C-alpha cells in the first residue's frame, strides 16, 4: 500500500459521497497527489516516518493553509488564499499527513448546524435530512463518511464536540493554550481551540500528539510538557472518580440522551470506576455569559475585515462607504447579529453591566469546575442535550439554536479539555458522551474515553 493509494481512496470516496454530504469547500487533488508522491519516495529511503505518515486529512476552513483557499465559509473570503500556514497546518506537514482539502463550517465558526455556511450546508452522513452539527460540521461529517482519515476542527463553545456527537465520531477540545491558535482565524480569542476529529480515541491521541505544544507565535500558548498521550491509553480506569453534574442531566436533556449517558456510566462502573452526582451551580448562566463574551470578542476580531486588508472589496466612492458596503455584503446574518450584540455589550455605558459582569460570571463558572476537580478525576455528561435535528428546523430560532451548546459552553468558559465519544443512538442518530478533565490533563480524558470506547 502506498500513500498515493491512500490519497486515491480518499478522493474516490469523496467522488462517491460528497455530492450528498457536502463536507468540502475546497479540494486540491494535484497538490495532494504531489505530497503523496513525495512521501512514497521517502518510503524507499527507509527514513523514519512521521507520526501521521501518509494519512489523508481534512482541515476546517478557518485554519490558514498556504496556497490553499481559506474562506471561513464566508462571502468575505470566498477568493482568499493565505500566504502562510497556521502552526497546526505546519505540524500536520511535519507529521507527514496529506491535506486533502478544506472543510465546510458555519461562517466564521458562528453556529451549531452548518446552516450558517454562506455556501451550502453540510448534511449528516447518518441521515442526510439532518444537520451534522457545527460549527465544525464539515470536519465531523467528512470523518464520519470516510472521506478522510481524520480532520481538524475548532471549538469556541462546542464546535468540535457537538458535531462529533451528532456524527458519531470522536472530537477533542484541548485545554485552552495547549494547541497553537496561530493562523486560526479568530472568532473569540479567549475561547478558541483547535483539536482533532477522528474515528476513534487512539487516532485522537495520535493527532493531538502531533499538534500540541508551545508556539512563540501565539501569545496565549502554554509552556507545558507534552506527555505521551498514546501510552496513557492503558484501558485501566480502576478507582477513577467521576463527577456527574446534576445540571447536565436535568431539564432540557432528551430522555434518550440521558439513558445513553447512564448506560455509559454503568460500563465505566463495570471497569472499576466510581461515579457520584455533583453540582456545577452556575451552569444556568453559561449560555448568556458565553454569548456576551464570544460576541464581544468577535466584534473586535472581525473589525479587521474592512474591505482593505483581506478578501472582498466593494465598489465605493469613499472610505466609510467602502467599509459599510464591504461589510454589509461580505458578512451573513448570524455574523452581523454577533457583531451588533458584541459592539453593544462593549460600548460605554453598557460595558460594566454586560461585558464586565459576564467576565465575573465566567470566573464563577471556572470555580465550579475547580471545586469538583478537587475531588474527582473527570466530569461526565452528555455532549449535547439532543441528537442532531433536521436541516431547517431551527434556522429561524437563534435562541433555541444557542441552547444546543448548554453542556459544551461551560467547559469552554473554564478552559478545560473535553472529548466527545459515541455512546449510543437515539432515533437512529448518534449520541455523544462528554468526558471533561482538569486543565492539561488530556491524558486522563483520553484514557477514560479509550477504556469506555
Ligand atoms: N455554536 C456555538 C456558537 O454558535 C459554538 C461555536 C463554536 O464553538 N465555534 O457560537
Features:
453 residues; 11 strands; ligase; binds glutamine; Glutamyl-tRNA(Gln) amidotransferase subunit A; 14% strand; single chain; alpha/beta; eleven-stranded mixed sheet; 38% helix
Blueprint (SSEs and pairs):
Elements: H1 3-21, E1 24-27, H2 29-45, E2 56-60, H3 87-94, E3 98-103, H4 137-144, E4 150-155, H5 161-167, E5 170-173, E6 193-198, H6 201-211, E7 241-245, H7 255-270, E8 274-278, H8 286-301, H9 319-330, H10 333-346, H11 352-373, E9 378-382, H12 398-403, H13 409-414, E10 418-426, E11 429-437, H14 442-452
Parallel strand pairs: 2-3, 2-4, 7-8, 7-9
Antiparallel strand pairs: 1-3, 4-6, 5-6, 5-10, 9-11, 10-11
Helix pairs in contact: 1-2, 4-5, 8-10, 8-11
Catalytic activity: L-glutamyl-tRNA(Gln) + L-glutamine + ATP + H2O = L-glutaminyl-tRNA(Gln) + L-glutamate + ADP + phosphate + H(+)
Family: Belongs to the amidase family. GatA subfamily.
Keywords: ATP-binding, Ligase, Nucleotide-binding, Protein biosynthesis
